[in-house]
Design a protein that fits this description.
Length: about 280
Amino acid sequence: MIKAICLANFQRMERLEDILREKSGAFSFDNCARNASLEKMGVRLPKARSTGTTIVGSIFKDGVVVGADSRATSGELIADKDCIKLHKLTDSIYACGAGTAADLNKVTAMISSNLKLQELNTGRKARVIAGLRIAKQHLFRYQGYVGAYLVVGGVDFYGPHLYSVAAHGSTSMDPFIADGSGSLAAMGVLERNFKLDMTEEEAIELVKNALIAGMHSDLSSGNALRICVIRKEGARELEKFVPDFCQPSVKEQKYHHPPKTSTVLKSKQMKFDVVEAMEVDKK
């Protein structure tokens, strides 16, 4: 009797160990098999869409430089070659946006209006972290369904600040940031050439080269780039810059044919008489 009970307990422990071993795997591919079965049944699974943009930001000694390209895509089509991705929040805070253009316009407009109300109520300039908090709380509420990825840069009483905000609300503070589909190439330029206590000219050149690298390696980024320099006294938007490889290539084709090059094989003249049509009453 005792042996039977011990054997039953031992078998139960073995089954429990097998169950735990099955559930302790690093990754389960059950969903992959489920998705394959759904595709065989004719169900169209949602596909991930890549939104094309390159946005870059960098801190220098006395301020922040942010920049973005100007190409907006709709799938594989270029929907807008002069899309504004550099949004003004206050006189000393700007945001570059990647993601859905409509969502970015509405989110940045909402942040800007809230910061202006805060400045009117307090009589002071808004802090950069105040705009960051408004953005992250709004985006976290929608769990990524609002497609807005932001690079928020500005200067306040505490100095220059640069933040990145993901669409689901997570944030990070870095001395240089790149986001969008061309961010990998842009980040390579930033990591190689960034240094502390840069001058304004060095920071502008760094951001410009990072944007050009992202635009050159990403088909969804391009056309032109816009850069804004933010200092404590205010912001200054630079003139729109078009890289050489984004210049429209128009080939002038001139055709000069000598007279009587084409031989006329047959000609025919036709003569028509114009006759006015008269309305006839049909009774």
